[in-house]
Design goal:
Oligomer: heterodimer
Order of helices and strands of chain A: HHHHHHEHHHHHEHHHHH
Distance between the termini of chain A: 22 Å
Number of helices of chain A: 16
Mean pLDDT of chain A: 90
Radius of gyration of chain A: 20 Å
Strand content of chain B: 15-25%
Number of strands of chain A: 2
CATH class of chain A: Mainly Alpha
Number of helices of chain B: 10
Strand order of the largest sheet of chain A: 1-2
CATH topology of chain A: ABC transporter involved in vitamin B12 uptake, BtuC
Mean pLDDT of chain B: 93
Structural class of chain A: mainly alpha
Strand content of chain A: under 5%
Shape of chain B: globular
CATH superfamily of the largest domain in chain B: P-loop containing nucleotide triphosphate hydrolases
Number of domains of chain B: 2
Chain lengths: 332, 243
C-alpha cells in the first residue's frame, strides 16, 4: 500500500509541471518549487527536531551559510553551483558542529532559546560584513546558457523554462535528501538520536555520547539547509541577509513537519504539500482584491494550522490511513 | 586477583548532607552482591557514582584496574558497567526491540547484527511476542525486564540493578529473582542488586552490604547480616534491638 502511494507520488511529482508548461503558465511550477524546498527543509529539520528531539529554531543560519558560500564561490571564483554545493554543505556542517557543541550542555527550552540567539547574532553579521556585501548582499549574474543540459549543469535556468528548470532541480535535491535520511533513520544514528530524545540519561547509560550525537544530528540538519540555500540563491539570483536569514526558513518547515507528523520520515513532505500551496493560494486570493493588505490570508492560514494542531497533534500522517484505504470494506 | 570493582573511601555531599560518607567496598568477578539499607541510606547515590552520573567529592572508584572516579557514564558503559533505574527509563516511543537494539549498538555498528542480539535478549528475558510494542505501553514488570535486556545488550561485566523488584507483585518479583539467577549463571555477569526489601536480597546474594545514613554499617554473608546488631537497629529501630 505504502509502495503504491510512493510510486504514484513520484510519478505525479515528475509529470506535474509538463501540462502546466504546455499551457504556458509558470506560477504553479514556482509553487511546486517552494513545496519541494520546504519539504526538503522539513525532512532536514526532522533529524534534530523529530528524531533527536531537540527544538532548533535557528537552522535558517545554515540556509544562509549555504546560500552565501555558493554565491561567493560563484561571484569571486567563478565556481559553478553544483561544484559549490558540496563545499557549502561541508562548510555549514562544520560551522554548525563548532557552534552547537557548547550548546549541547543546555537542554529543553534553553537549547531552543540558544539556537534562536545564534540566529539573532547572525543577522547583524550578515548586514554589516563588507566581504559578503553587507546589507546589499551579493548578486549572481546570469551567464547565457545554450541548451537544457548546460542550464542544468550550471543550475542557471532562465526564460520561460526557468520555473520548470528549478522545479526539477529542487525535485532532484529533495529526492536525494529523502533517500539519504531514509538510510540515516535505519542506521545506528537513527536509533541513537531517538534514544536521546526519549531519555537522555538512559541513553548515556548504554554508552551513547549524547553531546556528540546531538552535534551530529544538528549538523545533518544544517547540511540539508545549506543545500537548499544553494538552490535558493541560484533561483533568486541574489543573496542578502533579510532574505536568507528570514524566520520563515525555519517556521515553515517546522510547521510542515509538525502538521504532517514529527519524527516520521514522510511527515514534513505531507505537511509541505498541504501547507505551502494553501499559503500561496491564500495570498493570491484573499491577499488581493478589496481585502488586500489586511492580512486576511495569514489569519485564515493560521486558523487552518491551529485546527490541525488541535485535532491531530501527532500529525496528519498518524491518521489511520491504512485502515481507510484497505481495499473493499467487509460489509456489503 | 584484583577485585572487579573497588570503591575507596567514597564521599558524596549534597550541601551539608553527606549522602555517602567514606564508603569502601570491593566486588569480585562472579559475585552477586546485595546492597541494602532503609530509604535514603545512599544506595542510589553510590550507584550514580559508580556509573558516572555523579562524581564523588572524595575517594576513588576503580573498575577493572581503571580509575573511573571522574569518567562520564557513556565511557563507563564502554568499559563494561551497565545499570537499570529505580524509576524505569525505557525509551517510551521506541518499540521493545528498538530499545534493546540501542543497547546492542554499543558493541557493533551494524544494525542487522544488533537486531539479532536484541532478539536473543528479548527471548532470554521472556519478552518474546512484545518486540513491536512501544515500550511506553508495556507493564511495569515488562519495562523492568526490558531495561535489563537493554543493559545486557551492552555486554557488561558488571550489572547494577536498582530496585529491579520493587513495585512488582509477588509472582512477578519471584520471576525477576529467577531472571537475576539466570543472568549470573548463563551470562556470567557480576551483579550488584539494590533493594530495600531484605527478603528479596538475602536468598539471592553471596554477600550483602548494608548502608544507613550514608555510611556502610555491615558487609558480610547474608547469614551474618541478619544477626548483625547494627543492621537490626537500622531496620527495626532501637527498642526492638534492645530486646
Amino acid at each position: 500500500m505504502a509502495r503504491i502511494a510512493l510510486v504514484i507520488g513520484a510519478i505525479a511529482a515528475i509529470v506535474y509541471p509538463i501540462p502546466l508548461q504546455l499551457q504556458g503558465t509558470t506560477y504553479y511550477q514556482t509553487v511546486g518549487f517552494l513545496v519541494l524546498v520546504n519539504a526538503m527543509l522539513g525532512v532536514g529539520w526532522n533529524v534534530i527536531g523529530g528524531w533527536a528531539g531537540q527544538f532548533d529554531f535557528g537552522p535558517q543560519v545554515f540556509f544562509a551559510v549555504g546560500a552565501y558560500t555558493s554565491a561567493l564561490l560563484y561571484v569571486k571564483l567563478g565556481v559553478d553551483a553544483w561544484l559549490g554545493l558540496p563545499v557549502a554543505v561541508a562548510a555549514a556542517a562544520l560551522i554548525c558542529a563548532v557552534l552547537t557543541y557548547p550548546l549541547t550542555r543546555l537542554r529543553g527550552h534553553y537549547f531552543a532559546i540558544s539556537t534562536v540567539a545564534i540566529w539573532m547574532i547572525a543577522q547583524p553579521i550578515g548586514a554589516t560584513w563588507e566581504y559578503i556585501g553587507a546589507a546589499q548582499g551579493l548578486f549572481i549574474p546570469v551567464k547565457p546558457r545554450t541548451g537544457v543540459l548546460a542550464s542544468a549543469l550550471s543550475l542557471q535556468f532562465s526564460g520561460p523554462t526557468k520555473a520548470m528548470g528549478y522545479y526539477y532541480a529542487a525535485l532532484v535535491l529533495f529526492a536525494f535528501t529523502l533517500a539519504l535520511m531514509a538510510v540515516v533513520e535505519r542506521s545506528k544514528l537513527g536509533y541513537y538520536f531517538r534514544a536521546i530524545r526519549d531519555d537522555q540519561e538512559a541513553a548515556e547509560g548504554i554508552g551513547i555520547d549524547s553531546r556528540l550525537y546531538k552535534v551530529i544530528a544538528r549538523s545533518i540538519t544544517a547540511a540539508v539547509f545549506a543545500a537548499a540555500g544553494v538552490l535558493y540563491a541560484f533561483w533568486a539570483l541574489s543573496v542578502f541577509p533579510e532574505q536568507v536569514l528570514e524566520l520563515n526558513w525555519s517556521t515553515l518547515p517546522i510547521m510542515a513537519t509538525v502538521v504532517g507528523g514529527i519524527g516520521r520520515l514522510w511527515g514534513p513532505v505531507l505537511g509541505a504539500v498541504i501547507l505551502i500551496p494553501i499559503s500561496q493560494i491564500m495570498s493570491t486570493t484573499l491577499g488581493t482584491g478589496p481585502l488586500a493588505g489586511r492580512g486576511i490570508d495569514l489569519i485564515v492560514y493560521g486558523l487552518i494550522i491551529i485546527v490541525i494542531a488541535a485535532f491531530r497533534p501527532t500529525g496528519l500522517l498518524s491518521l489511520p490511513w491504512s485502515r481507510w484505504f484497505r481495499p473493499g470494506p467487509a460489509t456489503a | 586477583m584484583a577485585p572487579l570493582l573497588r570503591v575507596e573511601a567514597s564521599t558524596k555531599r549534597f550541601g551539608g548532607l553527606a549522602a555517602n560518607r567514606d564508603i569502601s567496598l570491593a566486588m569480585e568477578a562472579g559475585e552477586i552482591v546485595g546492597l541494602i539499607g532503609p530509604n535514603g541510606a545512599g544506595k542510589t547515590t553510590l550507584f550514580n557514582c559508580v556509573t558516572g552520573y555523579m562524581h564523588p567529592d572524595d575517594g576513588r572508584i576503580v573498575f577493572d584496574g581503571r580509575d573511573i572516579t571522574h569518567t562520564r557514564p557513556e565511557r563507563i558503559c564502554r568499559l563494561g558497567v551497565a545499570r537499570t533505574w529505580q524509576v524505569v527509563r525505557a525509551f517510551g516511543r521506541m518499540t521493545a526491540l528498538e530499545n534493546v537494539v540501542c543497547g546492542a549498538l554499543e558493541r557493533t555498528n551494524r544494525v542487522v547484527e544488533a537486531r539479532v542480539r536484541a532478539t536473543e535478549l528479548l527471548e532470554f528475558t521472556e519478552l518474546r511476542g512484545k518486540h513491536d510494542a512501544p515500550a511506553a505501553t508495556l507493564t511495569l514488570a515488562d519495562k523492568k525486564r526490558l531495561e535489563i535486556a537493554r543493559a545486557l545488550a551492552t555486554r557488561p561485566k558488571l550489572l547494577l540493578l536498582d530496585e529491579a523488584m520493587s513495585g512488582l507483585t509477588p509472582i512477578e518479583a519471584a520471576a525477576a529473582v529467577q531472571l537475576v539467577r539466570r543472568i549470573h549463571e548463563e551470562l556470567k555477569v557480576t551483579m550488584c542488586v539494590v533493594e530495600h526489601v531484605m527478603e528479596v536480597v538475602m536468598p539471592l546474594s553471596h554477600r550483602v552490604v548494608v548502608l544507613d545514613y550514608g555510611v556502610k554499617i555491615a558487609d558480610g554473608t547474608p547469614q551474618a547480616i541478619v544477626r548483625d546488631e547494627q543492621v537490626i537497629r537500622a531496620y527495626l529501630g532501637e527498642r526492638r534491638a534492645a530486646h
